[in-house]
Each structure stands twice: as C-alpha cells, then as structure tokens.
Amino acid sequence: MKKLLKGLAVSLLAISLVGCGGDTAGTEAAGETAAAQEGAAEASGETKTIGICLPTQELARCLKDQEYLTEFLNEMGYEVDVQFAKGDAATQVSQIENMITNGVAGVIISPWNGDALTTAVQKCHDAGIPAIAYDALIMNTPYIEYYSADDLEGIGGLQAQFIVDTLDVENSTEPYTIEIFSGDQADNNANYFYSGAMNILQPYIDAGKLQVLSGQTDRNTTATPEWSGSKAQSRMDTILSTYYLDQDIDAVLTQNDDLAAGVISACKSAGYGTEDKPLPITTGQDCTIAALKSILAGEQTMTVYKDIRTLAQNASYIIDCLVKGETPELENTVTYNNGAVDVTATRVEPIALTVDNLEELIIGNNFYTAEEIGLE
User: Fold this and answer.
1) Mean pLDDT computed over 310-327
2) 217 and 181 Cβ atoms separated by less than 8 Å
3) Whether 45 contacts 351, CB under 8 Å
4) CA atoms of 134 and 108, how far apart (whole Å)
5) If you average pLDDT over residues 47-54, what whole number do you get?
6) Which residue, 288, 279, 216, is CA-closest to 58?
7) Where are the alpha helices (DSSP H) in 183-272?
8) Could you report the per-residue pLDDT of 65-89, keeping only the tens digit for each?
9) From the DSSP assignment, how many helices (H) and strands (E) are in the chain?
10) Is the pLDDT of residue 25 over 50?
11) Cβ proximity of 212 and 245 under 8 Å
12) For labeling, which of 85, 246, 314, 369 is most exposed (least CB within 10 Å)?
C-alpha cells in the first residue's frame, strides 16, 4: 500500500499545480506559488474573494471540502465566501447570483443538481466571473471549461471489484446474492458510479454468478433520493422481507457511506450480524467518521478513500489561474461532456479502504485523528 500511495502522489502532482500559462513564464513549484500570490495581493492592497458553493452540510465530506478549499485559497491570498445549498437547487442558484452581485472574483461550484445551474453559470460568464465545477459536473452549459473531479467511473468499478474479489465470484461454483443502491437521481456523479459498477457486475449477473433476487438493477429503480440513509434503510427493509425470507443476502453495493449505514441497519433489524448470519459485504464512499467506526466494528466492509485535499488543491489552482486571466497548465487530464461542451478535468484516483489500511490512510494522511474515529 505504501508503494501505491507513493505512486498516487506522483501522479497527482503531475496533474495539478504545475503553473499557469499565458503571462507566466515557465512553471512554479507548488510550494512557492501560494507565497508568491499572497505577497502580490498584499503589495497591491487588494484582497479578492472566491465564492465556494457546496451542496449540503449534511454530507460530512462537504465539510472537508470547505476546510481544504478555504485553506488553499487563504494561502493564495484570497478571502472565501462559503455557501451551502441545503440540498436545494433553487437555493444554490440564489447563492451564486448573490455572489455575483457581491463581486466575487471567481466561483467554485459543487452542484446539488448539475442540470439546474445553466442560467446561474451564464450569469457568471456575463459578469466576467470565471466558474469551475468541483466534485460534480455542471451540465448543459458552454461556460464551464474546467472540472476538479475524482475518477467517477473508477469509484464505482472499485466498489464492484471489491465485492467480486472478496466473494471470489470468478472461481465460485455457487451463485452469490447481491442488491444495488445508487445515489440520488439528480446527481450526475451517481450515474458515473453506477456505470463503473455495472461494467464489472453485469457480466457476472448475466452469467448467473451474481443474483439480484429483487430484480432491481436499473439506475432509476436503484436510485436513493437525496442520498438518504433512512430511505435506503426503508428500501432494504422491503427487499429483505420480500425476497430474502428463505435465502441470505451476500453483498450490497452501496454508493456512499450514508446508504451503507441505512442498509446495515435494515440487515441488523432482520437478524444479520451474528456468527450464524453475518452481515453482507457492504461498500461505501467518503470515509465518514460513522463509516470508519463501523468498519472498525466489523460492520461496514469498505469505503472509498478519495484524496479531498488534492481535489481542493486542484480546484484552487485552476480558479486562481482563471482569475488572473491565465490558462492552467495541466497534465494527464480527462474530459467529460456536459451536454454542451467537453470539460477538461483533473482526476483523483480512488483507493479501497478496509480495516487493514484504515489507520494508514486516515491517520497517516491527517484526514481524521485517532481520537475522532475512536482509536484512542
């Protein structure tokens, strides 16, 4: 794992913070960039503000986004205006419009609903304010050129492959049972997670090696409104009481930690979690404190560790370049089509986190302290 992390760090450095093009000659070392920018801001007596639009405070990872984006932008000499949309697209639109009125220099937007911000982004463009997408893509607008992203399909594929490998589906002579819980229908990221997972799972489902007894495999049926753990729990209650009276469930692909918590609660209510009736393999994403404690307790099986710090670093670097009227110099990028244009994206690769590497990834990377996750 240490070798993997070292390789990951090298690849991330290659796609971020390599210097802005345009008026900047050559490139700058990442560690020198923030100091130089802060000094320039102090010399001019001008402090600019970057608007940060995040979807909700209810998801723990959004608080990490706020923490790291604020840290990097402050180091670059910017003030920040952080707004949470409270899980409502109209609220997020209003917040962006207020940021424009207040004269922010740029906007980093993590959309609650990627299809609902076309007009707001148009207003940013008309006001000469650069806007970039963060964590989730903003759809159907030509005015989003850059996107600080995770490897979205890779996350879903990692979750699915974990299940396949843990059950040794390839070599099994008996089929295993599995159910699928995907994220909110309006979340464009969830579509990519689902696609990445089904690329792995569908061949085994078609071959009969994995059986979905509920028959619920399409994106619409598996979607969980608002990424709600309680709604996932309710759906799992129904699935277990309808389709698993005479057979145990072996695995549940859940796209994030909140869904996993809901599924595990339903399973425990149905008698799972004993030596004779173990909990199914459950996947997750985001490394919430509750999920990490659940993994340590032997309940949730895995979660996906994403380097949010690097995600925020990439976004801060890109918006800084755009505010200066310069072109970000990025390597090893990918593109995502948002329905109007191809958007250039940096990409952070996911890592499967289990009880075996939890301490290395979480404590070793200062994601949480040992005390916060109950190791002390």
Assistant:
1) 97
2) no
3) no
4) 6
5) 96
6) 288
7) 188-206, 219-222, 229-243, 257-269
8) 999 999 999 999 999 999 999 989 9
9) 13, 13
10) no
11) no
12) 246
Say how far apart CA 307 and CA 77 lie, in whole Å. Answer: 23
Residue count of the chain: 376
Alpha-carbon gap, residue 41 to 230, rounded angstroms? 47
Gap between the Cα atoms of 299 and 54, Å rounded: 30
Pick from 326, 302, 323, 316: nearest CA to 346? 316
Does pLDDT of 158 surpass 90?
A: yes
φ, ψ (nearest 5 deg) of residue 339: 95, -15
Tokens of 369: 């302290």
CB atoms within 10 A of CB 206: 9
Best CA proximity match to 280, nearest among 262, 267, 296: 267
Q: Please give the structure tokens belonging to residue 181.
A: 């819980």
Helix (H) or strand (E) holding 337: strand 334-337
DSSP label at residue 85: -
